[in-house]
Structures are given as structure tokens and as C-alpha cells.
Amino acid sequence: MDETSELLQQRIRKLEMLREEGINPYPNDFKVTHTSLEVLKTYGPMSEEELKSVGETFCLAGRIMAIRNFGKASFIQLKDREGKIQAYFQREILGEESFRFFKRLDIGDFIGVEGGVFRTKTNELTLFVQNFRLLGKSLRPLPEKWHGLTDIETRYRQRYLDLIANPKVKEVFLTRAFVIQSIREFFNRKGFCEVETPMLHPIPGGATAKPFKTYHNALDMELFLRVAPELYLKRLVIGGFEKIFEINRSFRNEGISTLHNPEFTMLEFYQSYATYIEMMEITEELLCSLVKEIHGGLRLSYQGREIDFTPPWRRIRFKDSLLEIGGLDPVILKDVSKSIEVARGFGLELKRGTSHGRVLADLFKERVEPYLHEPTFVTHYPTEVSPLSRRNEEDPEVVDRFELFIAGREIANGFSELNDPSDQRERFLQQLKEKTEEGDSSLFFDEDFLLALEFGMPPTAGEGIGIDRWVMLLTDSPSIRDVIFFPQLRPER
Length: 493
Description:
This protein has 493 residues and is α+β, with helices and mostly antiparallel strands.
């Protein structure tokens, strides 16, 4: 029997003994009056003499993270939702029977404690326990005790253990919660209305991505988990919602990497009578405000490199970026065969019938995107790779669209929306033709969205921001799995 199994059996026997003695190991009637942080912030600055005049009694509850026994007295480290605090148990105060019961507790158990505060000889603010109760028996020992949890697979598969053992992990997710809350407050202040759109779609749309399929028995029809909420949000714009946003879960049946998870979180927002220019301005304002709130200024370090968010951020046209940053020959912008030749020279695999715009987009991903470290708006993408974007008035071969790149990855995608139903129909048909020629059957023709568009949509701009990737930057996390509570993993064999 290994050590973990032996400890498990010991704790199960303890649990059985408690029940035999009529003690409920899982009660639910202990009332908490304070958290560890509240006590430490209020009384931490006080001297020992000042603490003697504090007559208040505190009731705290949490998990035992460490125990130090000294015969007739013991110290524990108690961890609750806001931090840790030391608690002192003395046999003379608790009584023989109660102190003996305390000695049967294990690291990992949940307890409630009641008592005052004092300072130890080492000057640590400590709870002087007068009464306590077992609130939840832990049957399994915590991972690696005081050494933390380091195995990556275990951390992701058993996130609850990761959160217990690694305090910095909890901070990452508290930051994520703060970011989402701040986004809501930002858009509420600007007069946007938060909305909810379906996760189950009869036709996948809004992005060229492979969907997850499911089946609705009562309706006897196939449905798809949404790859993006875009087309439903535009329906709301058509219906008169001029400023809307949604913080949504989307799903794409594609690869898993440090930047991709099949289930992810996006912010999408739309504003009527605005253009992609306003979207870039809103993006700068929103993201800069979050960097300031979390880092105290407009600079942060990500994986050892500093990023300066001081606006205005760099703006560069898509084609210019291929030449200035990618160092490519200008001939690729006009000569389709030459662009294909160059792409294959870099080892890029091109599907049959790939359009010129798609080839250029593949070259951009290979030769430009990894080198966009500072916040950079890349604008005026080829029309062929932007089926939902408005054509540029001066050059119809490109659209009024941008993507924001930071630390070599896409963070946001926004554009002036295409509201011409005839042009949209042609683009959908062309996109469907190209995908069919490439042997890709993941694209569907959304006739219902075109019907809605024919009722008229005001000039509008919209944008999507990947919240997971944004939180990665703010928390210096190298993988998207570090900012998602329960990332998708292969089953354990």
C-alpha cells in the first residue's frame, strides 16, 4: 500500500470513529463573522498593549494548512477565501477533552474557530482559540504538503488542488474575474446594453471555424454549438439595439495549443453609426484602463519582455506590414502565382483553390504576426478573407477592418459591418465556393441572416476581443490553460 492509500485509510477510520461518537463531521451551522484579511488589516498594525484592550471575539472558518504541536499547545495555519492567519490552541483554555479532539484533526480539515487576538513572541498576529468545531473532514492528504503542486497535468486536471497548493493561481483567476467585471462596468458607463444570444445554432456562422455538432431529440434536428455570436448580435442591431455587448462562451472543434482551447470566452460589442476607427479608439481606452488598474501604469512584463501600452498604438495597413515587417517582395501583392511560390518556400501548405487574399493572410501569419510585440492595429485586410466586413470606399479590394496584435498574437478583431444584403449574399456565395474547392464542408449558407439584413441594418461597427488571451497578458501566463479553470484535456489512460 502506498503512502497516500495508507493515509486515506487512516482518515477513513477517524471519520468512522467520529460518527460512532455521535459527532457530525460535516455540520452546516457555524456562523462566520470575519475573514482572515479583515482581522489582519484591522488589528495587524496594533501593538501588543493595544491588542490587550480589544474585547471583540472573532469567528473564522477555513482549511487547516499546517499544524505545529508543542505538547500542551498547538498552532495551526488557517486558510480562508481571503488569505491565511495563525491560530493558537491551548489545553488549559479548551479543556482536556476538547484539546484531545483537536489533536485528532488533520491538515486539510475545515474548522471553525472562535476567539480573540494577540501577538506571539515572534510578533505574529494570532487568534487565541476559545472554541472550535470540525466543519468538514478531509479524507485525502493535500498534494506535496507544504511544497506546492508542480506537475502540470495534475494542476490542470485537478484544478481544485492547484488552487489550494498555489496561491498565485488563485490570484490569476481573481484577476480574470476583475477583468470581466470591469469590462461590464466600462460598457455600461458608455450606454451599451448587455445581451445574451443562443449557444445552440441551427447553422454555424460568424466565423470560419469547424463547429461542434449536437442533436435535439424533441425537434428532431441537428444543432451546432456557436463558433461566434456575431450574426445573432447583428440581428439585434437590425431590431433597434444600437449599442450592445455580450461576454460569451464560444466553441470551435479545432486544435488545442497554448493559445487555443475548444471552449473559450469572448467579448463582442456593436455600435450603430460608428466605424472601425471608433472601435480602435474604444479598444485603446478599454485595454489601457485595465492595464492601469491591474499594474498601476501602462507598462507590464510578459514572459520576460516589457510591453508599453501608452497610446496612441501603432497602426499599419495589412499590405504594408507584409513589406515593412515581413520583408517580403512587393510583387506578391499583385502576382498570385508569385505569392503562392513564396508561401510554399516558407513551407506553408495551401489548400486547393486558395485565393490570393488567403495566401497573403497565411504569409502574414508566418512572417508578420510573431513580430508584433507592442500593441499594433493592422488595418485594411483583403476583402476575400473578410466576408462580413464593409468594403473600403477608396479600394474595394480591401475592407475597413483591423486586428489588434500584442506579444505576437491576435487579441481583437473589429470592422465596419457589411450592411448591404446584395454584397453580403455575393460574399457568402464566394466563400462557400472557395471552401468547397478546398474540400472544406464546415461552412453553411445563412439565408435567415440575409433575410434579416434585407429589412435594413444601420451603418454599424463591431468587434470581438479574446478575454482568455487578454487575461494571459495581464497575468503573465504562458498558456491559455493557465487562465481557464478547467481546460480541455485528453482523458487519462
